[in-house]
Design goal:
alpha/beta; six-stranded mixed β-sheet; 434 Repressor (Amino-terminal Domain); six-stranded parallel β-sheet; Rossmann fold; DNA-binding; about 350 residues; about 45% helix; homodimer
DNA sequence: CTGAAAGCGCTTACAG
DNA sequence: CTGAAAGCGCTTACAG
């Protein structure tokens, strides 16, 4: 592929002039400009971004770390981040950690080696190794925390209103008259999981309901944990359950199916994460709807702004969720009953 | 961040020696090696991959183009590709085209400028511009076609058995006794769409059933087209429908809901794409299950092999689908009826 | 076995 | 306004 020297030769100018017209970075007389443009076109010249990055010491790449793109929570987040990144002239490089700190470490190291300009991090459980923390600090590479906040990680953050979301979900169940409300928890080692648990407890407390630890089952945001948690929890006869994400709800439904327990007639459910297809299948899930696309886009924007202005104080943005009421909470059922009465 | 010169200075050797030990590319005496390693550790040296790529003329990046990562068909494909790419020492850069040829052109150009070593392409409708075709040809940059094949695009391909998949799905419906079978088609300008339509027609023909064009509604793999197609199609009273992907099935279900038509009692459905959550919600969808993760991984592997061996003749790999029978096709219903009889 | 030096393809002060 | 040259951080023949 033609390089800048070939273009300069063809146009009979210096490479500085070619660079100036290609980047519009300095005035070039119309005649020279025309000659350069003709040469660029003739040779099909595409500036080598690798070389440019090396020279400018900016790669215009952003690294993004998520647990698993195949978990349907993440694609929209990633899409939002990608659109915003591209709009700002950045390319996004994605990695999946499966919430494994070793993979995370590996990919962070790779990002550093590739000299990404900044990082979007949905942190896996646990703290960074001292070494990685030092590397990140030394390079002064901006990092924005995505959903999963940590006090030991400095910098900007865009979060969900996890506590509030869980609080509203559970309060909704309380309002519908359920008294024995269980929970399939999120990853406890991570802020989203802890905050959702807090919301659950706060809602119970406000309703004057006791907190029963045995009704709270651990989960890891995957199908299997929702299933096994459901198998255990359902034996304890809850009348409603709040589930921390969609995939665990899927597993929980498998458990209900196995026990031949109906939703919402026997056990009501409210879930986190909304999806376009939830309206089309029964039971139609009542959910707490997080603005996923917006969150990803916002995170990328915050990172890009940070790149432009390193001095500014760190920001934390918290995005609001909204309750989408459908059938699985039993609301429609109660309405129908009221109607008949 | 420390560079190779700083390390060389610290270890009192030349940069060639540092390079040799960092890359294990030549024998270095134990003493020098130890000194270099100590210096690397002390300075926290991370080789700059940008510079390495420039020097070696290989970026170790793979570009991947998909329509939309937020369409649940793609995340698993991407995850497969990413895992395989990383395993082979490559980094994947992803772009979403929304099946818009202009975005596709834009991103391809970006990939070329970034000097990716190869491209995984789920082609948007239509042919490449002459210019892009020339660029791709000139750079001799390997490209593997993902699912969407085109004769005017040379190179390796990994495909789904679209025709066979559709054939089996529709034959299954025929076997269950349906005679007025409709279809929500995929994107016709793309091979997957055409091949699935072919499978549908072949199945009808083999069953001696007439092909009725009015029962085939266009679709674009998005929810909305399944919905509006469903609204139209259902007026024609089909007894069963084959739908080309999951998102359109979601839209189709919305249309059924609106008309208060039940599935499978009134209209049976078989769909393309399986998902982990389909077991948990009603109607439980009977689907043609494509090996998505494997397909992505396979495509990345084919591309990496091509990079290692440019001479070899182009390969086309076709992956087999399998029918997953659940409730939406009415099979269970018929079984129950037979039981009673 | 080890090092000096050229080259990868850009950008950018600095002269003129 | 334009160009010669150094620099970004690597790799890799080529001497010795």
């Amino acid at each position: 592929m033609a390089n800048i020297y070939a273009v300069a030769k063809e146009a009979k100018v210096s490479v500085a002039t070619v660079s100036a017209v290609v980047n519009g970075t300095a005035y070039v007389s119309p005649q020279l400009k025309a000659r350069v443009e003709a040469a660029v076109h003739k040779l099909g010249y595409q500036p080598n971004l690798l070389a440019r990055s090396l020279a400018k010491q900016r790669s215009h790449m952003l690294g993004m770390i998520v647990p698993d793109i195949a978990n349907p929570f993440w694609p929209e987040v990633v899409r939002g981040a990608e659109d915003a990144a591209h709009a700002a002239g950045y390319t996004l490089v994605l990695s999946n950690t499966d919430d494994d700190p070793r993979k995370e470490e590996l990919y962070l190291r790779l990002f550093l080696a590739k000299r990404v300009d900044g990082i979007l991090l949905a942190k896996s459980p646990g703290r960074l190794s001292r070494e990685m923390a030092a590397l990140l600090g030394v390079g002064r590479i901006p990092l924005v925390k995505l959903f999963r906040a940590r006090n030991d990680l400095p910098g900007d953050a865009v979060l969900l209103d996890d506590r509030q979301a869980a609080f509203e979900a559970v309060s909704h169940l309380v309002r519908l008259g359920y008294r024995r409300i269980g929970m399939i928890m999120g990853v406890k080692e991570v802020s989203t999981g802890r905050r959702r648990l807090k919301g659950y407890r706060d809602a119970l407390e406000q309703a004057g309901l006791p907190f029963r630890p045995e009704l709270c089952r651990p989960g890891d945001y995957r199908v299997q944990s929702g299933y096994s948690g459901g198998l255990d929890l359902l034996k304890l006869k809850p009348d409603a359950v709040f589930i921390s994400n969609y995939l665990m709800a899927v597993g929980f439904m498998q458990a209900m199916r196995q026990y031949q327990i109906r939703c919402p007639q026997d056990v009501a459910i409210v879930t986190c994460d909304d999806h376009p297809w939830l309206d089309s299948f029964a039971p139609r899930l009542t959910t707490v709807n997080f603005p996923k696309y917006t969150a990803g886009a916002e995170a990328a924007r915050v990172l890009v702004e940070r790149l432009a202005n390193r001095g500014r104080a760190a920001r934390t943005i918290e995005l609001r969720s909204s309750l989408t009421i459908r059938d699985s909470c039993g609301y429609a059922l109660q309405q129908a009953a009221a109607q008949r009465a």
